[in-house]
Amino acid sequence: MGLANISPLTVDQLLRALAALGQAHVADPDQRPDGPTEDDRPELLGALLALTETETATLVDPKQDPPLHLHGLQQGWQHTSADRNIHRAVLTNRIHRTAFDIPLLLADVDPDDDEAPEPPGLAGASASAMAAADFVNAQDHCDQGRLEHARIALDSAEGSLAQALITLHLLRLQVRAMGRKE
Question: What is d(CA 59, CA 176) in angstroms, rounded to the nearest whole number?
């Protein structure tokens, strides 16, 4: 996406924000005797993001139609910038994170065990999220006239959708087999 942040949040700002929200971050004194460094920015941003997303999840009830407070959250988010490139970059990044977070945070398997089967529903959800990100990227490339990049993104989306359909079938078989045991 080629975006540049001209005023990135500093480590000190992130630490103050986390502390203000009751999540003080303490660095391992053996590893970081002088406290968190620039290398810790991704982890600190992740902690701040987790607090925000957790708060959002408790505020927005997805069972309501439309979800309560969703409109206000969307308005607040959109008021941070009117730049569609920023919106696209943020949304694509969020979708990618979701695709990687689903198996990492929800699967009850050892992430270091390459032989451990991932539950098909979670694999399908992750693949579907990857497809969504690829669709957004493909449309962006198409809008910018980068047709070869659009084709590559569409191929990736197609592969992810095929994987999602396979895992859908596997989950259906699992449900059917479990139903026979009852």
Answer: 35
